[in-house]
């Protein structure tokens, strides 16, 4: 016999974005429920179904009947990982909110340590930092560290290199995020950019418990582009720098070509200079136009005012 859901405001909300997670969902519930039951009497688990096409919606419906603290939010279509988390944050009601993926690579047991750190240190954010990423490929670990270092340099944010979307946030932090107008949020950089007091807890990143990764290379590349264009003007300035460097190189090339043209038989008159100048200037122009296009695209999307997601149903709306 299941207990009736509490009408009190939950002390803790756990937001879990899900997309085609039918294999891992039972394992997640089996590990997460004992952790939360041991932490507080008043909590909610906000499962955001990001337009799954497998049995995830049916399993979530069944789980919510067996586990009354589970709240199911269904999106009308697949909106993406970051949008699904944003949807969960907008609906979460807890004094503290934890975001965690469903794949169990980030262990739910660390939530207790996060909550303890937030109360002990009186901070608004507690980041889960992976002290051991041996389960990830060398390529993924290396590129991730390089990218985070690059983002920190060009944007001035303090994003942790080995921190993803596993974090605990206070109510004030969640409300600050929900008030932001940006619809293409990359939360792993948005949260540090707020500058709220924070702490970290470390853990070993585990293998995915079941199913397949929902972040292939192309999605990671898209996330990287959104991160760069969303947090820094460096690419726009880079276009200016490249233009200046290109101008200097063309000046040097011109001098070299003039000198070479005075030596009979070394060059075909006009050919070298034309190719070098056209290729150099064309490459710089195309690169700069591409960077400008990224920013213009973001402005266009923002002016359209389209929501990042559409809610189909919320089992806890009442």
Give your account of this protein's structure.
- The structure is a single chain.
- The protein is of the alpha/beta class and 318 residues long.
- It has two domains: 12-216, Spore Coat Polysaccharide Biosynthesis Protein SpsA, Chain A; 234-304.
- It is built from ten helices and eight strands.
- It has an eight-stranded mixed β-sheet, sandwiched between helices.
- Helix 2 links the parallel strand 2 and strand 3.
- Helix 5 packs parallel to helix 8 (217-231) and helix 9 (234-261) packs antiparallel against helix 10 (271-304).
- The longest helix has 34 residues, at 271-304.
- It is elongated, with a radius of gyration of 25 Å.
Question: How large is the share of residues in beta strands?
Answer: 15-25%
The main sheet comes to: 8 strands, mixed
Can you tell me the CATH topology of the largest domain? Spore Coat Polysaccharide Biosynthesis Protein SpsA, Chain A
Provide a count of the helices: 10
Q: How far from one another are the termini?
A: 23 Å
**Residue runs with pLDDT of under 50 for 5 or more positions:** 1-5
Q: Helical amount among residues, as a percent range?
A: 40-55%
Helix/sheet category: alpha/beta
Number of strands: 8
* Helix-strand pattern: EHEHEHEHEHEHHEHHHE
The tally of domains stands at: 2
Q: Based on Cα principal axes, name the global outline.
A: elongated
Give the radius of gyration. 25 Å
CATH architecture of the largest domain: Alpha-Beta Complex
| CATH H-level homologous superfamily name of the largest domain | Spore Coat Polysaccharide Biosynthesis Protein SpsA, Chain A
**Broad CATH class of the largest domain:** Alpha Beta
Q: Which strand order spans the largest sheet, edge to edge or round the barrel?
A: 7-5-6-4-1-2-3-8
Q: What integer is the average pLDDT?
A: 80
């Amino acid at each position: 016999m299941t207990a009736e859901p509490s009408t009190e405001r939950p002390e803790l909300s756990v937001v879990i974005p899900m997309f085609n997670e039918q294999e891992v969902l039972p394992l997640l519930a089996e590990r997460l429920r004992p952790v939360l039951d041991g932490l507080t009497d008043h909590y909610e688990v906000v499962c955001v179904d990001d337009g799954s096409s497998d049995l995830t919606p049916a399993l979530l419906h069944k789980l919510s009947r067996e586990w009354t603290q589970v709240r199911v939010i269904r999106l009308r279509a697949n909106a993406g990982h970051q949008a699904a988390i944003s949807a969960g944050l907008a609906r979460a009601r807890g004094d503290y909110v934890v975001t965690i993926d469903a794949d169990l690579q980030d262990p739910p047991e660390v939530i207790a340590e996060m909550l303890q750190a937030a109360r002990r240190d009186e901070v608004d954010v507690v980041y889960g930092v992976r002290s051991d990423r041996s389960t990830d490929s060398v390529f993924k670990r290396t590129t991730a560290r390089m990218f985070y270092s690059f983002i920190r340099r060009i944007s001035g944010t303090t994003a942790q290199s080995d921190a993803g979307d596993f974090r605990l946030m206070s109510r004030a932090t969640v409300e600050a995020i929900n008030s932001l107008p940006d619809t293409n949020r990359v939360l792993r950089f948005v949260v540090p950019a707020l500058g709220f007091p924070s702490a970290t807890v470390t853990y070993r990143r585990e293998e995915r418990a079941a199913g397949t990764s929902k972040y292939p290379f192309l999605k990671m590349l898209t996330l990287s582009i959104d991160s760069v264009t969303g947090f820094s003007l460096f690419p726009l300035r880079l276009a200016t720098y490249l233009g200046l460097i290109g101008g200097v190189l063309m000046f040097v090339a011109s001098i070299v070509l003039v000198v070479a043209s005075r030596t009979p038989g070394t060059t075909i008159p006009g050919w070298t200079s034309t190719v070098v100048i056209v290729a150099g200037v064309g490459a710089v122009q195309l690169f700069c136009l591409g960077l400008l296009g990224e920013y213009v695209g973001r402005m266009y999307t923002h002016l359209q005012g389209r929501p990042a997601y559409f809610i189909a149903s919320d089992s806890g709306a009442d």
